[in-house]
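Rotation project, supervised by the postdoc (A.L.). Task for the rotation student: set up a whole-complex structure prediction and record inputs and outputs verbatim in this book. Inputs entered:
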Amino acid sequence: QEQLVESGGGVVQPGRSLRLSCAASGFTFSNHGMHWVRQSPGKGLEWVAVIWNDGSNKFYADSVKGRFAISRDNSEDMVYLQMNSLRGEDTAVYYCARDRDDACDIWGRGTMVTVSS
Amino acid sequence: QSVLTQPPSVSAAPGQKVTISCSGSSSNIGNNYVSWYQQLPQTAPKLLIYDNNKRPSGIPDRFSGSKSGTSATLGITGLQTGDEADYYCGTWDSSLSARVFGGGTKLTVL
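Outputs recorded:
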């Protein structure tokens, strides 16, 4: 079945880097844009970034612009989020989600990132 | 402060109907499709409505969506205790070149 599985979360010190991965299966990955969305503890959803199906365009939330980078490997059905200069406010569950018809139609279970000294 | 405005909470009795509003502007809801998501406690969000009013396969017709101008509405009829969740609206914002979500609405089925 169509599935997304995130990995790479953990505890990291402020100012350090972390790379999240999202493995897709059960659908033609290269046909879809992919999003990263995060949720801080007890808070609402916050969109982070999107990459188009062919990787030709990438957009970021202002809160992460210049620090985070989204990328994908269509040969491996993977999407990544490179997170640099991490801050306490980046602490959240990070979800990857598939884009279809201007919506996020499939979501992974998420991976937790904790930024703390 | 979210770009899209939702009420923090709504409540209704089992079997009743509830609506959740989502207010935006011409740069987002006014000119882009709206989607709605349900997030049950401790789970990932789930798509309920896309393209303003379409339901993915498997979503019961108790859930409906509509849009008028710069506002959108999610309707849920025949409320069940299992509908207790957080609900989010989302769309693209053409000025920000970013996807945006509402702040979320907690539904309580009394």
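Student's summary: Residues 53 and 65 of chain B are 4 Å apart (CA to CA).
Supervisor addendum: The first strand of chain B starts at residue 9 and ends at 12.
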